[in-house]
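Worked example 2:
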Amino acid sequence: MKVKIAFFLVCIVLVTLGVVVYKKNLSPASSNIIDQIEIADAQFPSFSLLYIANKEGFFKENGLNVHFKSFKIGKDALQNVIAGSSDLATVYEVPFVRSVFDGKDIQVISSLHKSTTSTALIGLKSHQVTTIADVRGKRIGVIKGTNAEFFLYVLLTSSGIQLSDVSIIYLPPEKIDAALLDGSVDGIVIFNPNLYRLKNKLKDDAQVIYSNLYKENSLLVGKSSTVKNRPETMIKVLRALSEAQVFALSHRDKAIDDVVASIPSATRPDINGVWSDYRLELQLDNVLLNTMNQEAQWLKKTGNYGDKEIPNFRPLIFTEYLRAVNPEFVTLY
């Protein structure tokens, strides 16, 4: 009888241990399903929240395995998403607006930064460019289809200068800096960190002209099917980026280290020099919506989409996931 009781007690202990081990294996830390996500990335400091989230382990802690694909500019990253090769893309507004005009089914889930000083026209004083009025008759280089092109339009028209008054030279990203440095053009529109580097190289010959009417936003964008069909994944991404936003505010030097380690062409002096130009934050607001509408009107006016109606961008700014992470990040009505 004693043997039977002892055997029974042993069985209870073994079953209890088995349940404990089983529950331990199902704990959030160990049973969290790891979501795989591919991000097509243009590798600019404006997208720093992504790099911080990756280097500080915020993606991993939220159950994500993130892989980055590198591109020179955001419109190429966006095309990679549209082609179905990546889940999300880092991009500025103009390529997004163009793609919507072209009928692409894409949506924004958040902005990544805001700035009014990250993009500028930089001219050569040696070519008599010292004020915005001096660009009349000058050769101004710009990368076609980017926010830089829209910036040039805003800068010129707000200064009473017609597009026809300027010789606009479209240049590929890899040649635009060199065109200014060798004097092939009189000025270019460029954004950080290249803007910062060129100011340092040209020194006293650099004339930098900003526009306080230009509101720059970078975006995290996906195909509508991806955005809507992977809600848990999208929320995990935004939660990790929200943690990166808090980290960047309180750990400036470490955040800069993370960005330098993530962008092969970046140096610490470059990133440190441009850091104050960015407001790194997740946000969806009416400023973004108004900017998209202004860019759409510009595209119609410049003849590219003159026969098309301006799209309704409001449904294409997907607010539910960001609101779930932090309602204060969404002020879009």
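The two ends are 75 Å apart (CA to CA). Residues 1-31 have pLDDT under 50 and may be disordered.
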